[in-house]
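Worked example
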Amino acid sequence: MAHQHSPRFLQVVNDAKKRIRETNVDEVKRKLDRGEKFTLVDVREESEFAKDHLPGAIHLGKGIIERDIEERVLDLNAALVLYCGGGFRSALAADNLQKMGYTNVLSMDGGIRVWREKGFPLTK
């Protein structure tokens, strides 16, 4: 069951979504299956990532991504796909990365929740 978010949080997320580009779970799965070159970033909490995550994902939690992204991804034009539990934290993180100069950032709408529902592979 999806978490019930507060109206003010949703307002901030919806504002960010006006400025970012989103993709969906099926498109990310196709990109992975085709072997496309991009960095998949899990922005959930460390404990969530430890439980399971998408194959090949790196972890840069929402709380630290802005601080640490430049150590992990030097190229401001690198293809990045961010995901979280449902697509809200990843939208906020994508908005901030764009403000930092990253030009090719996507947020995966539906997050790992929809990925799981579709039975797509996960790693621990």
Observations:
- The chain is about 40% helix and 15% strand.
